[in-house]
Request: fold
Amino acid sequence: MLNKVMLIGRLGRDPELRYAANGTPICNFSIATDESYTDRDGQKVERTEWHNIVTFQRVAENCKTYLGKGSLVFVEGSLQTEKWQDKEGQDRYTTKIKAQRVQFLNKKEGQGGGQQQGQGSNRQAQYRQQDNDDMGPAFPSEASGMDDVPF
Reply:
């Protein structure tokens, strides 16, 4: 059996870090992916899909430290569905992506093509401290070089 998800998208808000009762760091954030197509009438249609991501341990801490709203990331993980009950006692379901790997794809100014990974390097700390007014394109498909992604 296989349960594998791979996404490239932009964070819709800053990551939220919390700690479980046993002290395990847990980070939640959402990313947007987009697609566009031409409908039957020849009109271009753009669609955005939002994905809820959860990370744990060191990956969670790095995501909180080095990511922010608008950051471009590659997420690899698996789907996880949770069942819960609302106020009226109705069963509800929430599907998240339990990320095993998160790669930071934003480039630091003046550097060519290098990808940053969530491992706490000085490069990442320097990137996070710089002024992030220009976060690049709003959606991954607008980013240059996205046609070269190998999947």
